[in-house]
Design a protein that fits this description.
This protein is an alpha+beta fold. The protein has 6 helices and 15 strands. The chain has a 5-stranded antiparallel sheet with strand order 13-12-11-14-15. The chain has a 4-stranded parallel sheet with strand order 5-4-6-7, with no helix packed on it. The chain has a 3-stranded antiparallel sheet with strand order 1-2-3, with no helix packed on it.
Length: about 300
């Protein structure tokens, strides 16, 4: 099936069939598609050049990777990561060196019984409620609130990923909305105008790089970034925070993916609000040079992680 089979059109929106997320068809979408396409093309060119050079030498072990039940499209982060890590895609599950459970859904059943490592195979629930539960267990303070008893402003949003329908409500309320979760309202701004999400890629027990996704107040719960800055975990997290983030990822059984983390301006605490096991990226608003820097860091970390898995 072609790439277009992943999408449908509805009421002026491009709908991702797998998740149901609807993206307005406008000039911003055209720019996003152009940026993504340019990046994918450049990654493919870099890989082709490296493959040609590797024909003359055989210093690096050939590693094959298979995906199940779905195959990642080029706009998912794992695609350029595998390309720049020098891994070879195969559709033959029983001969692959390593498997990657790739399923763009909130929940998945763990049905793997292979003799090779399976990445993200045990990451079977990334719902908002599960994320909040594990977060509280690891960090020791809650994100979730009971909206029928809580007093003050809170955030209501859908359980699913990629919906971006968060809205501020005033609690207490009489009844909970079906399919919604209720969380503490995190002020992740420094001036009340610019809100920063800390997009945190996870590769095994490493955080190779960070994206600071910045949004205007009116877009704070959307996916509309007016600026994305590449930085390092050492610049943003304390050693203790880094350790807890990795502990959280382990508790979620996330081998490769992305976390959305907010820092509350009132007390400086971190809050992990989303887990994405089929991460897209890097963000299109990131400058092209920084995209390549970020993906190469992720690719190097992923190659090392895979090799460590194969040694066990």
């Amino acid at each position: 099936m072609g790439l277009l089979s992943d999408f449908s059109l509805r009421d002026g929106h491009l709908v991702i069939k797998r998740t149901g997320a609807a993206i307005p068809i406008d000039s911003d979408l055209v720019k996003e598609v152009y940026r993504a396409g340019s990046f994918i093309t450049s990654v493919a060119a870099i890989r082709a050049t490296r493959d040609a050079k590797n024909l003359l030498k055989s210093e690096q072990r050939r590693i094959t990777i298979a995906f199940t039940p779905d195959t990642p499209r080029p706009w998912y982060a794992i695609w350029p990561v595998c390309k720049l890590a020098g891994l070879h895609f195969t559709k033959t599950l029983n001969t692959a060196d390593i498997l990657f459970h790739f399923e763009d859904s909130l929940t998945a059943s763990q049905t793997h019984t292979p003799k090779v490592p399976v990445l993200n195979g045990a990451c079977t629930d990334i719902s908002k409620s599960r994320v909040a539960f594990v977060f509280e267990q690891v960090f020791g303070y809650p994100l979730t609130i009971n909206p029928t008893h809580y007093k003050g402003a809170a955030l209501e949003k859908s359980e699913g990923n990629g919906v971006h329908d968060g809205r501020i409500i005033v609690c207490p309320i009489n009844n909970k909305k079906t399919g919604a979760v209720y969380q503490k309202l995190i002020d992740n701004s420094t001036d009340g105008k610019v809100f920063t999400d800390i997009r945190t890629p996870i590769v095994g027990d490493k955080i190779p790089t960070l994206y600071l996704k910045q949004r205007h107040r009116a877009d704070r719960f959307s996916n509309e970034n007016f600026r994305v800055v590449l930085t390092t975990p050492e610049e943003i997290f304390t050693p203790q925070e880094y350790s807890k983030i990795i502990s959280f990822a382990r508790a979620m059984h996330l081998d490769f993916g992305g976390l959305d983390i907010l820092r509350h301006s009132a007390d400086g605490r971190l809050y992990i609000v989303d887990v994405n096991k089929t991460d897209m990226g890097p963000p299109t608003a990131l400058p092209s040079k920084d995209k390549h820097i970020a993906i190469q860091k992720l690719a190097d970390a992923f190659r090392n992680f895979v090799e460590s898995k194969l040694l066990k």
